[in-house]
Amino acid sequence: MLNFNTPIIDNKEYSEIKISKVEPILKINLRGKSRNFITKIGKELSIIAPVDPNTSSSNEKLNLLWLSPDEWFLYSNNKIELNDSNLLEDKLFNEISKVKLGSVTNVSDHWIMINLNGTKIFELLSAGCPFNFNNFKNSKGAVTQTLLNHIDVIIHNNNINDLNLFVRRSFAEHLWSWLNDSARFI
Description:
This protein is α+β, with helices and mostly antiparallel strands. It has one domain: Gyrase A, domain 2 (2-Layer Sandwich). The protein has four helices and eleven strands, in the order βββαβββαββαβββα. The protein has helices spanning 35-45, 82-97, 121-126, 169-183; strands at residues 12-14, 17-21, 27-31, 56-58, 62-68, 71-76, 103-106, 111-117, 143-148, 151-159, 162-168. The strands form two sheets. Strands 1-2-8-11-10-9 form a six-stranded antiparallel β-sheet, with helices on one face. Strands 4-5-6-3-7 form a five-stranded antiparallel β-sheet. The longest helix has 16 residues, at 82-97.
């Protein structure tokens, strides 16, 4: 992973909303179509790969998000040391990419993860997002790819009033500013 300085340096707390940047964690993009590919993911990660649109699977260490019929986004629950992330990435690469079942791409440096927590997070998101969160907010493990303040994001509903939001690094500072400015008025 890159050694970088992020513009997001502090966590913010507002009335019923907490916005925090999550330390660099492992993020891997997995792509493939075959049944063998899906079986191999399950075996290597000890997670059943979600095949229903906009769902996720998880265990105590990892989350696997469905992004499209042939694409999944894997991220760790906790900060992973460089050696541990290399071991997992190498293991997946050897079992999937090397045998041409699919592709394994480390996107840890591409995405910033922001955690949103609190009872008014869906009001905050709805202020800048066309997505209808009515069903989403009550569906633990739900996933959506949408626009937030004209920026592509992936949102994972961890639990009631607890979301992980993924934004591309180049847009992270802009989205962070928008989230904080908007949260003050909610």
